[in-house]
Amino acid sequence: MNLKGFLYILIPTFLFSSMEIALKIAGGQFNPIELNFVRFLIGGLALLPFTILYLKKNHVQISKSGWGRIALTGFVIVVLSMTLYQLSIGMTKASVIAIMLSANPIFGLIIGFVFLKEKLSRTNVLALVLTLVGLLIIINPFHLSGAMGIMLGLLSSIIFGIYGVMSRVNGNKIGLNGLSMTCLAFLFGASELGILMGISHIPAVAKAIPSSYSEFANIPFFKGITVQTLPLILYISVLVTGVAFGLYFVSMEKVGILQASLIFLVKPALAPVLALVVLGEAMTANTIFGIVVILLGSLITLMGEKIAYSVMAIFRRNNPEAHQEVDELEIVKDKIENSELAKHRRATEEAVRESLESKRHEAPSED
User: Fold this and answer.
1) The dihedral of CA 26, 28, 33, 34: what is its sign?
2) Separation CA 209–CA 200 (nearest Å)
């Protein structure tokens, strides 16, 4: 990987890892629903020029059903997942929520397996088990603190996994790349959240909301945005939301999906360190151990097949008799492939020979 490719990975990794810290700081100055609305509205607008350029360049025409798919995807990511995510950050440690959100690819594997019948390999199952074990170690159910925040963070991560599957499937059906699908989903999701925020200003609705949930009544739209808070809002909206997501999809195109996955592999380890330095959130022993287990699960997801084949090769060298049948199957497979290749080669040579013969007969004689 060259320097440019390395930067494609490094920048979004840092931005994603600092996301919970920035939102934690801003959470004390803004209504959590308002912050979620502003964040995705500005983040979506930051990606809009690139989306318009892509639509024009590729002549993409979005149908009514396509707009419906985008609207539903935006509702899932902004209104459901990120609203729960923002609420959870205000209830528990930012480092714990960061680790939980990083587990969303594992939940995406489960969702793809259940609803899309996507293949789930043994390495993916092992990675899933390790991730769940790591989450249990961090949550520490026997000494649970901030239970509501942890549950909301876990639910947010699961829904984020659903969003990942929906974005991939709907984007392919509509003809959008990852960045364009993200931009439009952000804008639609922010608009849908804005409608719900407007409904909260209706007197009858505001009175029906219990006082313990006052943040859901008369939700402000742009309250608290001043000269002092504007840099933080722009950092969260433009950099953490717009640029981070944008560079993530660009990195998949520039350096490949495998290398881009390193972003969510490094985030569980980097985010708690940043939370310790900036917020002073101490890392307990079970948190550190849980991070190691989750990183191991993520590593297996990323490199699972290579590791599995390497382990199989070692076992075969040490136990040739135990894997004799497998080796025989490989030999048979090679013979079949070679025979098919030879058959194809012979057929091609015969076709060329017949073509030359026909041309020779059709050509006029010199006499």
Assistant:
1) negative
2) 9
Residue 39 corresponds to which tokens in the numbers above? 């964040």
- Residue 234 DSSP class: H
Dihedral sign (CA 242, 252, 118, 58): positive
- Cα dihedral sign for 153, 270, 14, 280? positive
- Please give the model's pTM, rounded to 2 decimal places: 0.71
Structure tokens at 64: 């009514």
- List b or e across 253-275, with b for residues whose CB sees 16 or more CB atoms inside 10 angstroms: ebbeeebbbbbbbbbbbbbbebb
Q: Which residues contact 79 (CB under 8 A, 6 or more apart)?
A: 189, 192, 193, 196
**C-alpha 246: how far from its chain's center?**
12
Kindly state the percentage of the chain with pLDDT values over 90.
20
Tokens of residue 4, six digits = 């440019």
CB-based contact 158:131 (threshold 8 Å): no
Confidence of residue 296 (pLDDT cuts 50, 70, 90): confident
**What is the tens place of the pLDDT at every residue in 138-196?**
766 666 666 788 888 888 888 888 887 888 888 889 989 888 998 999 999 999 999 99
Which tokens go with 308?
């599995």
CA 87/CA 89 separation, integer angstroms: 6
Largest Cα–Cα distance of the chain, in whole Å? 107
Per DSSP, 81 falls in state: I
Domain residue limits, the chain: 3-303, 319-362
Cα–Cα nearest to 17, from 312, 207, 311, 244: 244
